[in-house]
Amino acid sequence: MKNKSTQEKVVLELLTNLDTWVSGDYLAKKFQVSRETIWKAINNLKNKRDYPIVSRKKRGYMLHTAPYLEADLINIYSHKQLTDNLHVFKEVTSTQDLAKQFSSKHCITRPTVFVADKQTNGYGRRGRSFYSPPTTGLYLSIILPNQQQTVIQPGLLTTGIAVSITHVLEKFYPNKEFQFKWVNDIYLNYHKVGGIITESIFDLELGAASDFIVGVGINLTTVKFPKELAIKAQAIDNDNSVNRNQLIAEIIQAIINGFLDYTNPQLLAEYRKKSIVLGKVVSLNTGSEVIQGVAQKIEDNGGITIKRIDGTFQTFTSGEVIKTGFKYKGDHIG
After folding, report:
1. What residue stretch is flagged as signal peptide (predicted)?
2. Is 80 helix (H, G, I), strand (E, B) or coil?
């Protein structure tokens, strides 16, 4: 049996028993190798690859929940679906920028993922900065190839992926009830805990989008925010026991599945149900003007219909809700 294969099996076994002692004798018998082979594999994982494994006589080995991000661990949790298409960094300017640069230089045939522990220039829609400190958040971008050159509805894609991501978050944080602010923000208790940005790479020869790049930023345990964010952003929880490597692996798979299934009407129905803007007075920035009115409906294409101050209805497929729930000084909008 090759040493690398033994290492992978040992890691997988320790992962299934995180923070629990596993004896060397048990590992040797299970994988049908010598105790010395197990010992060498463990030492290589500890000394050359910095795995947080503790060894103790008569007890065996224990893998602590990794406080850092590790490509090998993410890959194991994803059942080796990513392998060479996963890139993990300690610090980058922006995973979204890395993904766009990579897409411009390569022909993408499989989902390709960029993950960072820290971003120095992370951003969301309209280039707005996304605070991305180390060890307390989740920051990733994934290139999704549009090999069939199908026409994608960007708004509906974003809503579908948002719901898919919260399904994973609800698994790891079962007591939390996540909400959505149109179109790309994930909320908890009316505070922002995450955001999604969806960008397309247009192929002029094909006349269609060749790739879509989905960026995700989530505040897991971030406590201290810049002053301008502190009143509207928060962390999901202060419990840092959640395994970020496993969480990232499952969110990556959720995004891939969400991309394939984003037109599923059940996803949009759930998005509508958990919307914090429907029925509320909102201010929507279209990029060229700010629209005020009452959010009436999330349309089947993911757009939003607003009843304006003058009583007319208007549907938007792009833009950003920047205020919710405020009151007009003038006429009441019902």
Report:
1. none
2. coil
Question: Residues 252-258: what's their mean pLDDT?
Answer: 96
Structure tokens at 172: 């790891």
DSSP, res 64: P
148 is in an annotated binding site: no
Same domain for 75 and 59:
no
Residue 176 tokens, joined: 């939390």
Let me know: does 50 contact 63? Beta carbons within 8 Å. Answer: no
9 is in an annotated binding site: no
**Does a structural domain hold residue 30?**
yes
pLDDT value of position 327: 47
| Of 40, 304, 92, 313, the residue nearest 215 (C-alpha) | 92
- C-alpha dihedral sign at 247, 253, 257, 258: positive
pLDDT (tens digit per residue) in 80-107 = 677 679 999 999 999 999 999 999 999 8
The boundaries of the domain holding residue 50 are: 3-63
Residues 288 and 257 in one domain: no
Closest by alpha carbon to 138, among 113, 163, 116, 114?
116
125 shares a domain with 22: no
Q: Which amino acid is residue 97, in one-letter code?
A: D
CATH number for 148: 3.30.930.10
Q: Please state, in angstroms and rounded to a whole number, the distance separating the CA atoms of residues 278 and 27.
A: 55
Give which of 202, 172, 112 is closest to 194, Cα–Cα. Answer: 172
User: What is the model's pLDDT at position 206?
Assistant: 54
- Is 83 in the same domain as 108? yes
Distance of CA 305 to the CA centre of its chain: 27
Phi and psi at residue 190, to the nearest 5°: 65, 25
Regarding whether 116 and 252 lie in a shared domain, the answer is yes
b/e 144-176 (16+ beta carbons within 10 angstroms → b): bbbeeeeebbbbbbbbbbbbbbbbbbeebbeee
Adjacency order of strands within the sheet including 304-308: 313-316, 304-308, 290-298, 281-285, 320-324
- Sheet containing 112-116: give its strands across: 86-89, 112-116, 137-145, 208-219, 191-203, 185-188, 178-181
